[in-house]
Amino acid sequence: MATAIPVLPEPQARALASAYAAAVSVRRWRGAAVLVTIILLALVSGYLAHVRPVTLVTNIGNFGSFIVRTIPDFSSGNLLADMRAWYWNFPAWLGLLGQTILIAYLGTLMGAVAAFALCFVASANLARSRWSRVGARRLLEFCRTVPDIVFALIFVIAFGLGPMAGVFALAIHTTGALGKLFAEVVENIDMKPVEGLQATGASWIQTVRYGVLPQVAPGFASYALLRFEINVRGAGVMGFVGAGGIGQEFLVAIRNFYYSDVSAILLMIIATVIVIDLVTEQVRHRLIGFEGAR
């Protein structure tokens, strides 16, 4: 049986079409205004930061020439010997690279534990009081606002040269970064299990343990692994201020213009980060149930 489709009267249809066109026009003007504002802010920021396209184009060759100088000369008839000469200090560099990874691991572990302890207090839906939430939030902001290299320099002055300064610096910065991410994960949970536990008289700790933790555990682990990748790169810079790892050897090579050593160490760092990224990516995908990792 055919169903008749009602047709609006012509004046009403024109009014609705005009209202729709006006709404679309307003949205387009708003989008254009936002885009223009972003472009203007970018231009002003570039001007104040002395970003000059002409200078970039003029001096881009210096960057390329430096990269070319770091590549050693290889001969087809003596390739193996050239590779050995390029990585002449491989055992020592490998040991320092391993130290860098351990610094990143320990700093990530300590920071993740501290962030785990603070995130529930810092979340709006679980905080017992407004003041405890504000205090936890401000503490996390302080930890992640101060650059980790500054923390490393302070700890080097306090405790002397060595990996311990790098571990503590990464741990503090990781606490601030992961604490915010963990708190946002907690704030996005389903509150029905929490309300059910509270209705049965469960304590705050029991509510977190049985109503919140099962929901947030995969997200916490995923963010912690991601932070470990970031900390491996960060730990590689800690050696610049004497906080251990391969960064100090890398800085020595740059300062003394040991070009082949610069490229050798840099390639080791890049390869390590790639391997860690691939491994942790698979682990993260399995934790969150991503089908592409299977």
TrEMBL record:
PROSITE patterns referenced in this protein's UniProt entry, alphabetically: ABC_TM1
Gene3D superfamilies with a match to the protein in the record: MetI-like
Main localization of the protein described in the UniProt heading: membrane
Protein name (database record): Phosphonate transport system permease protein
High-level lineage: Bacteria, Pseudomonadati, Pseudomonadota, Alphaproteobacteria, Hyphomicrobiales
GO cellular component: plasma membrane
Keyword Cell membrane listed: yes
Residue ranges occupied by any ABC transmembrane type-1 domain in the UniProt entry: 97-280
